[in-house]
Design a protein that fits this description.
Residues 155-166 have a biased composition (Polar residues). By secondary structure, the protein is α+β, with helices and mostly antiparallel strands. Helices cover 25% and strands 17% of the residues. The chain has a domain at 31-178. Strands 2-3-7-6-5-4 form a 6-stranded antiparallel sheet.
């Protein structure tokens, strides 16, 4: 009977250990993934729209730029901001129907070329970037598109938005942010964001301070206390024989 009880306890301990390991492996990381809401286009001309619930446009821009610093970022704005990476344009927009949410539109570079008008982007991006982007189009894009929130008025040329399918979700660019911990950047205290004036993403320098505590005797490494006694050793008896 006792053996059975001991065996049962051991099995319970093993099962609890396994369950704890599995739960640790299956727990979500500190990164939160925004849900995919709409998809448009195909191939290298795509647009994916995510929803950041209860997050303002500047908050989302801050989070995304801290995780992956953009090549260019527009000035802080409550309604609309742009983050530009090498091959992607992040168009952050306040949802007009739910102002506490932010819509994150991730457009491929080709999608921007095919749909946006350069005159609309001039208020958010540098002239050099716009010129390079639309250089093959003679300085202007093919469309008058102004973002997902204005899709009913300024329709994109490359298809219409639709609910994402399972394959769309697998192919969609991941949008993740780390909302825990702190981020330390190297470099100066100036900001390179477009039109921001260093307000949203400025880097603050904080002087590092510290103290070294010394004990009352005045030294960092004092000698051992005088009360310290060396261990006693005993010399055993015996004779040493030498070979002849």
């Amino acid at each position: 009977m006792k053996k059975r009880m001991a065996l049962g306890l051991k099995l319970m301990l093993v099962l609890s250990l396994v369950m704890s390991l599995l739960s640790a492996c299956g727990m979500p990381s500190v990164q939160d993934t925004y849900p995919l809401e709409s998809v448009s286009g195909s191939g290298n001309t795509t647009s994916y729209v995510y929803r950041a619930a209860d997050r303002s446009v500047p908050e989302v821009a801050q989070e995304l730029s801290e995780e992956r610093r953009p090549d260019q970022i527009s000035a802080e704005n409550e309604e609309r901001m742009f983050l530009v990476y090498q091959d992607q344009y992040y168009h952050l927009q306040q949802d007009p129907n739910k102002k506490e949410d932010t819509l994150i539109e991730v457009d491929s570079k080709e999608y921007v070329r095919q749909n946006y008008d350069s005159s609309f982007l001039q208020g958010y991006l540098t002239a050099t970037l716009i010129g390079n982007l639309f250089d093959s189009f003679g300085g202007s894009g093919y469309g008058k598109y102004r973002g997902y929130t204005d899709r009913d008025t300024y329709k994109p040329n490359q298809g219409t938005y639709r609910a994402p399918t399972s394959s769309d979700k697998k192919a969609a660019p991941p949008i993740t942010v780390d909302r825990k911990g702190s981020i330390t950047r190297r470099g100066g205290d100036t900001d390179t964001s477009v039109g921001s004036g260093g307000g949203l993403f400025s880097r603050k320098k904080e002087p590092s301070t510290g103290t070294v505590e010394r004990n009352k005797s005045g030294g960092l490494f004092d000698s051992p206390k005088s009360s310290y006694k060396k261990p006693k050793t005993r010399v055993g008896g015996g004779r040493i024989k030498r070979r002849r």
